[in-house]
Amino acid sequence: MKILVCISHVPDTTSKINFANGDTEFDTNGVQFVINPNDEFGLTRAIWFKEKQGATVTVVNVGGSDTEATLRKALAIGADEAIRINANPTDGLFVAKELAEVVKNGGYDLVIAGTESIDYNGGMVPGMLATLLGYNFINACINIEVDGNNATAIREIDGGKETVSTTLPLVIAGKKGLVEEKDLRIPNMRGIMMARSKALAVNEPTSSASATKAVKFEKPAPKSAVKLVSADNLDELVNLLHNEAKVI
Amino acid sequence: MSILIYAESAEGKFKKVALELASYAKNVADAMGTTVTAVTVNATDVSDLAKYGVSKVLKVSNDKLANFNAKAYADVIKQAAEKEGTKLVVLSSTTDSLYLAPIVAVNLNAGYASNVVALPVSTSPFQVKRNAFSNKAFNITEISTDVKVIGLAKNSFGLAEGAVSLTEEDFAPALNDADFNIKTENVEKVTGKVTIADAEIVVSAGRGLKGPENWGMIEELASVLGAATACSKPVSDIGWRPHSEHVGQTGKPVAANLYIAVGISGAIQHIAGINASKVKVVINNDPEAPFFKVADYGVVGDAFEVVPKLIEKLKAFKANNA
Ligand SMILES: Cc1cc2nc3c(=O)[nH]c(=O)nc-3n(C[C@H](O)[C@H](O)[C@H](O)COP(=O)(O)OP(=O)(O)OC[C@H]3O[C@@H](n4cnc5c(N)ncnc54)[C@H](O)[C@@H]3O)c2cc1C
């Protein structure tokens, strides 16, 4: 099985979010970048397939050369090869179109992406990619098993979960559950050494199609301070929730 | 030319998000000088939609669509959009609609913006404000395509009644066999309990509760409020509570009207997932807990004393306001 894992390069969860150039750009100053958490679950599941039933694992990112450290980390975790599409990921559709080219040229059977990336939270690349390719697609996927050409997956639904069956080729958008957090792989010294000799191809983009653009950023208005209520005066809390906040 | 919404229903009844979607679309339609059409799948009584401003409903009734199927449902929405000459499709942020939206967008050659939290900033050029960076910032997004798809974040607009007269029309879109390549084998849904996705109020507890045996008071507090229960990540990791209750950046997002956090420290990853909730109440014995910085109301105290007392107060309040 040939697996492609889409890797988004995102600010670490604890990053302070600031904007530059008159609030038109994300300020990367002092920000640590990581593999998008949802993609990390998918990458570990791909490595699991490789170890349990045999598969090759390629990771791909659409981004500038600064994202190569993130791809190297994915190689150190166990991916076999990496591809970087040398372009600024301007919007979800653009990224999906570039990824579709990679999938077509590489003939991948299973494409694993994350349900959403934690920077723009678009939640659109995997679904767009599958639709552009005409592949089957499962969103919010929390488990996947593959047997020959058949796949069984579990996806989250509101208030529960659903088991579905389908066939390859398939795109899934995954999240925690694909593997548990304790099973996430951390690069070890041997992996880091081996990653140095693995191929990291750089491809030029093929299109320039974008359908949306981020024109400006805003931070939420500063919050007023918390109103503290004494533990001996919970009537006051009930009163505030009813009369002031109007939520009960 | 009207705005198209997909109004989600379950067992024939519209979900509250569908009515919120109608309210939102009606406001956008008024600003753009047009009307709102809804497409429904296997909904029986659609009159509720008219109360919130929908003037036309395309009713799809088809047993093949009894189970949600993203590709097939996306086909339905696409054909409804084409039939109406729609330039703007508005979807909600349920798990199903988030699944559908990117498929619909590609099929309609439309740009898509998700997580939209307010009426458009401008309709020409078309710009919307959306949540980004896990609710730590907003982003104004411009959609440049002729047809546009947007996804409304839950609870970001609310319900706004504005009755209009309604035309109903049976609609039988063509379905493609290949759409059914994904087969539903089994659905497991929590029943008889408010779920995090549908809840107006969520009562959540963290490691401060010391052990699973102490969750009785959290369930009771939730039951008095008609709320869903939730927990922080370590709590579900240790197995005190099911994974389905884990909220936060790596868990479920919560956009409730009221979020009550008991014995949760307020780590940034937890806050990222609950930030979209309107009113936050924190009960914690540590006055320095970071959660107090983002809370609206706080009680510094021992959960084991505060929660039982609060349950009594709320019961009394409910009795007086019944
Ligand atoms: C990549 C990543 C992703 C993560 N994603 C998530 C996520 O999605 N969701 C999430 O929740 N966490 C997430 N975390 C973990 C997060 O950083 C915190 O560790 C976690 O939220 C802490 O949970 P807690 O507040 O229940 O426990 P603790 O940090 O142990 O805090 C317990 C709190 O209870 C209070 N307390 C103790 N006893 C009492 C008492 N008797 N009465 C009242 N209060 C009491 C304490 O003062 C303390 O504030 C993530 C971490 C990482 C690194």
Outline the structure in words:
The complex is a heterodimer of chains A (248) and B (322). Chain A has 248 residues and is of the alpha/beta class. Chain A has one domain: HUPs (Rossmann fold, 3-Layer(aba) Sandwich). In chain A, 28% of the residues lie in helices and 31% in strands. A 9-stranded mixed sheet of chain A has the order 11-10-9-12-8-1-6-7-13, with helices on both faces. A two-stranded antiparallel sheet of chain A has the order 2-5. In chain A, a hairpin with a 2-residue loop joins strand 10 and strand 11. In chain A, helix 2 packs across helix 5 and helix 3 packs across helix 4. The radius of gyration of chain A is 21 Å and the shape is globular. Chain A starts with a strand and ends with a helix. Chain B has 2 domains: 177 residues, Rossmann fold (3-Layer(aba) Sandwich), CATH 3.40.50.620; 120 residues, TPP-binding domain (Rossmann fold), CATH 3.40.50. In chain B, strand 8 and strand 9 form a beta hairpin. Chain B is elongated and about 60 Å long. Chain B has 322 residues and is α/β, with parallel strands linked by helices. Chain B is built from 9 helices and 18 strands. In chain B, the strands form 4 sheets. Chain B has a 7-stranded parallel sheet with strand order 7-11-6-1-4-5-12, with helices on both faces. A 5-stranded parallel sheet of chain B has the order 15-14-16-17-18. A 3-stranded antiparallel sheet of chain B has the order 8-9-10, with no helix packed on it. Classes of the chains: A alpha/beta (248), B alpha/beta (322). The interface between A and B is large, with 75 and 88 residues. Bound molecules: flavin-adenine dinucleotide. The site of flavin-adenine dinucleotide (FAD) has 25 residues of chain B, from helix 6, helix 7 and helix 9. Chain B: Pfam families: ETF, ETF_alpha. Chain B: Its cofactor is FAD. Chain B: Keywords: Electron transport, FAD, Flavoprotein, Transport. Chain B: InterPro entries: DHS-like_NAD/FAD-binding_dom (IPR029035), ETF_a/b_N (IPR014730), ETF_a/FixB (IPR001308), ETF_asu_C (IPR014731), Rossmann-like_a/b/a_fold (IPR014729). Chain B: Belongs to the ETF alpha-subunit/FixB family.
